[in-house]
Amino acid sequence: MNKEQFTQIYKENFKRVFRYFFKRVNGVADVEDLTSEVFESIYKINNLDDVKIEKYIFGIARNKLRDYLRKKYKIEYKLLSWDDFEESYWQSESNKRRDMTPIIKELVKELGESDKKLFKYKYVDNLNNIQISKELDISKNNVKVRNNRLIKKLKGLWIKSL
């Protein structure tokens, strides 16, 4: 792609891409960064002759937004082992960097038994969905659904506790 083609594409699509991010992301600086990343990706592509450029641009924008949101809202749920819930572990000098783990410990206490089991299998024992489905005698898809609901419950409980 030559400079003139890129300039034409940039002029025609900049405002729409900027508005796309502006509606979905808080902070103008992040919006500007995401918008520039999209056009940077477009500039690096050599041959766009056979591609409907508008769909291509918004496909890239959608992927950039997904990546941004994943990075921004990622919370570490993984625990070392079930024994980590013992009080002595939390009071140890070697475990000063706790991040979300103590908060999650308190939140898990408020869950029902089935949610506690799922939490233990998924985030403490590090079992995959197939293994969990065998342990709980439910389908793999049901494990996914229940896990998503569990995460939403934990987030809701966490927000309440703030």
Structure description:
The protein has 162 residues and is mainly α. The chain folds into two domains: 3-72, Orthogonal Bundle (Rna Polymerase Sigma Factor, Chain: A), CATH 1.10.1740; 82-161, Arc Repressor Mutant, subunit A. It contains eight helices and no strands. The longest helix is centred in the first third of the chain and has 22 residues, at 3-24.
Largest sheet: none
The CATH class designation of the largest domain is Mainly Alpha
Radius of gyration: 22 Å
Main structural class: mainly alpha
Q: How far apart are the termini? A: 51 Å
Number of domains: 2
Instruction: Give the % helix.
Output: over 70%
Taken as a percent bin, the fraction of beta residues is: under 5%
Oligomeric state of the chains present here: single chain
SSE order = HHHHHHHH
SS summary, helix count = 8
What is the level-2 CATH architecture name of the largest domain? Orthogonal Bundle
Mean pLDDT: 81
CATH topology of the largest domain: Arc Repressor Mutant, subunit A
Regions with pLDDT < 50 over 5+ consecutive residues? none
Query: Which term fits the overall shape?
Result: elongated
Give me the count of strands.
0
What features would you highlight for this structure?
mainly alpha; 8 helices; single chain; 162 residues; Rna Polymerase Sigma Factor, Chain: A; Arc Repressor Mutant, subunit A
